[in-house]
Design goal:
Layout lengths: L2 E5 L2 E4 L4 E8 L7 E7 L6 E6 L6 E3 L7 E6 L4 E6 L8 E8 L11 E2 L3 E6 L1
Parallel strand pairs: 2-11
Antiparallel strand pairs: 1-3, 3-8, 4-5, 4-9, 5-6, 7-8, 9-10, 9-11
Length: 122
Amino acid sequence: QMRLVESGGGVVQAGDSLRLSCVASGRTFGNYYMGWFRQVTGKEREFLAYISWSTTNIYYADSVKGRFTISRDNAKNTVWLQMNSLKSEDTAVYYCAAALDVATLPSLYDYWGQGTQVTVSS
């Protein structure tokens, strides 16, 4: 089994930057695509980005393309989401997740972290 734990969330001002981390425990981290999602209460979970094990396949949602950067270090069992030029509409709970194959749908991811709150104030 894999366990994912996010960290790095907090309260920031619009225009600021923040880096989220996700640390995985287990022996299968390197075999999975890793993705980042976010969710606001009352709305569907929103895909943000994914990255393959080799880092050669990376994809971003239009809403964050150019502002957010996903990266991973398999030796450290860690995936990051660097968030720049944050806007108030970025306020949400952010989740990392693991999938066996390339995917943007939450239902296709097998493991999820507990989430970390990001609040952007203007």
